[in-house]
Write a structure and sequence with these properties.
The protein is α+β, with helices and mostly antiparallel strands. The protein has six helices and six strands. About 50% of the residues lie in helices and about 15% in strands. Strand 3 and strand 4 form a beta hairpin. Helix 1 crosses helix 5. The longest helix has 15 residues.
Length: about 140
């Protein structure tokens, strides 16, 4: 058995799929298909009923390729909020649900939810255009 802590989780053990090798620096371990291993770990996390721990949340965030700052911006938080969730392990329920949904969308090959969120975040960065309306004999309308 190999205690796999490289993904940031302390409860992952491998029964096979790894090789111990001698390196100039001592013993090393080579993991076969790390991407596949991480996908299986991620799917196990998103399908569990228990709320994610901070480490599990961080694992999924990293698998999505998102920084704390990027994720925080998407959700209207500060990066320090996300860092706190990951460190203290108290992830808000809504963040727990969204990270699971984002991960499932990515794994299924359907990035549409991620694209929508990114577009909304981009729209937040832009100054809202001034909307001017005028009353006419036919009623209110957008002014030209």
């Amino acid at each position: 058995m190999y205690h796999y802590t490289e993904g940031g989780l302390t409860n992952v053990w491998l029964s096979n799929g790894f090789r111990e090798e001698d390196t100039p620096y001592g013993k090393g371990v080579s993991i076969e298909d790390v991407e596949g291993l991480h996908r299986v770990i991620g799917m196990k996390l998103v399908k569990e009923r228990a709320q994610l721990t901070g480490a599990e949340f961080r694992f999924l965030r990293k698998e999505l390729g998102l920084s704390q700052a990027k994720l925080a911006h998407w959700w209207g938080y500060e990066a320090q909020s996300v860092a706190g969730w990951e460190k203290r392990g108290r992830v808000p329920r809504i963040a727990d649900r969204f990270i699971r949904a984002f991960y499932l969308e990515k794994v299924s090959g359907n990035p549409s939810v991620l694209e929508i969120v990114e577009r909304l975040a981009d729209a937040d960065r832009e100054d809202a255009p001034k909307l001017t309306f005028e009353e006419t004999a036919e009623g209110w309308r957008l002014a030209a």
